[in-house]
Each structure stands twice: as structure tokens, then as C-alpha cells.
From TrEMBL:
Protein name: tRNA-specific 2-thiouridylase MnmA
Enzyme Commission code(s) on record: 2.8.1.13
Region span, Interaction with tRNA: 143-145
Protein purpose: Catalyzes the 2-thiolation of uridine at the wobble position (U34) of tRNA, leading to the formation of s(2)U34.
Protein source organism: Mycolicibacterium komossense
Catalyses which reaction(s): S-sulfanyl-L-cysteinyl-[protein] + uridine(34) in tRNA + AH2 + ATP = 2-thiouridine(34) in tRNA + L-cysteinyl-[protein] + A + AMP + diphosphate + H(+)
Amino acid sequence: MRVLAAMSGGVDSSVAAARMVDAGHDVVGVHLALSSAPGTLRTGSRGCCSKEDAGDARRVADVLGIPFYIWDFADRFKEDVIDDFVESYARGETPNPCVRCNERIKFSALSARALALGFDSVATGHYARLSDGRLRRAVDGDKDQSYVLAVLTAEQLRHSAFPIGDTPKALIREEAAHRGLAVAEKPDSHDICFIPSGDTKAFLGARIGVRRGSVVDAGGAVLAEHDGVHGFTIGQRKGLGIAGPGPDGQPRYVTGIDAESGTVRVGSAADLEIFALTGERPVFTSGTALTGPVDCDVQVRAHGGIASAIAEFVDGELRVQLRSPLRGVAGGQTMVLYRPDAADGDEVLASATIRR
């Protein structure tokens, strides 16, 4: 099988590529250039796609003895991931750029080019598993990335491979060291890859500008002014610009954002509790839509935010009733439905973008 191995320059994708070589496949490595002006060096665990990362990927390819290329996806990444991220925050939403990158870059643009060039599959270093075409959680629950892969269609999954999903991260590092790969102890990337400073508010402010509005309480009383709703997200407690706790002495949290009026509402922790979700643009990873009410677990963040639920596919939307409330849920987030399976690992059923 001809396999295109997406190589970020990190330990996970390096071992994934190595395993595909060991399996006897015809492997070609490719590093995605996602920035038109990549930095020379990473800043510890922040940032990615730097010149250092490209060099690390090339050296691993040399050790593995496979061809290696760099493909320029910078323009596509800016349009489909960065611009989407900024526009979503400007609408008062809280998007996950890793989900969009997988959906529109790694398993859309990249996969389409790979198939056009005659490759059978794209292999990545994601922590997830495929079993009979079904997407499942990784063995290492702390590193599981099935959530950010749940936007993939059945056809995209058919041409995907996740070689390391059956192995805990610690053992992946040991394997990389045993193979003599210099990236064995390289730090994992954290935060948002295109904001290496980690200052999301400043990044958004520079692109959205000042759009003044008010912070109000549940009764509509103005508590403070702000420079833009992009500086807030549902569940936020700090940096609200208000003096002290609420009248009950308890902390106040962002409970609602109206980008059109510029209004940010704050309230108590109890006001954050959500019992129902509606998701648009659903994707069914098996290729078959849900029929009738389905018992499942729903996850609304990459790590955490999980509750037992009943889900239905109605009028083109996913409608979910939670058996216990979730907090800090925001429009623009991705919700992922899982079928619990202790024996083979939880199976991803569907995903959708939370509308309300």
C-alpha cells in the first residue's frame, strides 16, 4: 500500500511513519508548511510548523530511509483555519481550531492531494483507533484525540491510518529512543499552534479591533465596559473587568455573549448549567445517520466536558438531552457523540457544531 505519512516533526508522527515502514508499506513523508513566514525555532512547547520542526521531520525521514517533501498549505490554512477562528470569536463563539484543521486541511486538502497522486492512505500521529472503519478512542485516555477527528467522514476515515492509537504515550517515546530518533524527548505542542505567544486575546484584538460593549448582570445592570466580545468565552471567571463577586458573595462567570449588541452577561455558576444541546452540520463517522433516539455520551471539549445523554437526528440537526448538566458550553464548540464500549474502546458516532 502506498502511504503518505504526515510528519509534523514531533515524536508521535515520527513513530507513526516508522510503524508504517515496518509494516512493509511504500511510505513517503510530507511536512505541511502552514505559515507563510515560519519562525526559525519553537518556543518550548508552544507553536509548531517552524523551520526547526521541518528540519526534525526531514532528519527522521532520513533515518527511516523514505522520501520526504514539504507541501505549502499556508494560504489554505490561513483561510480555512485562522480566518475561521477569528470570525467565529467575532460572532461570540468559541471554536476549536484543531478540529477545523483536521476537517479542512489534514483530512480534506491533504488527503485529496494524496489520493490524486495515487496514495492509498494518509497516516498521522493522532491518538485514536480505527476498527472495521469505526473511529474509536485511543488506548491512552489522557492523549486521546478522537474528539478532534470526529469531523471526518466515513470516506475520509477509509483512507486514514492512526498507527500509534494502540500505545500509551510513554511507550511511544521509548520506542522513538530505541529507533534512534532525535525527537524522542521533544516537548509536545500545546495551546493554539498559530499563536505561539499563548496570548489569544491579543491575537484576536489585533485582527478584530475595538468593538466596545457592556458587561451586564442577570438583571441587565451594567457592571463594566469592554473592548470586544472576542475577549470573553462562556464560563470565564477572571478578567471580566468587574469589581468583586456577586450580591451573594459568590464568583461571577460569563453566561452569555451577544456579539451583535456587544453584550456580555455574567451570572452564577448555576447559570452555566446546560441540559440540552443543538448541533448543526452533523457528521456521522460511520456514514449512516442516527435513527431514533440513541443512548450515548456527549463530549464538548477536547479533554473533559463529558455527560451521559440521549441524542436524535431531527430536521438535519443533532438534538441532545443531557442526563446531567454540563457547564461552560459555548456556541461554536464541537460536540461529539460516543457509544460507550469498555471492551473495544468508545466508538465515535457523530459530531456537530453547537448552535445553541
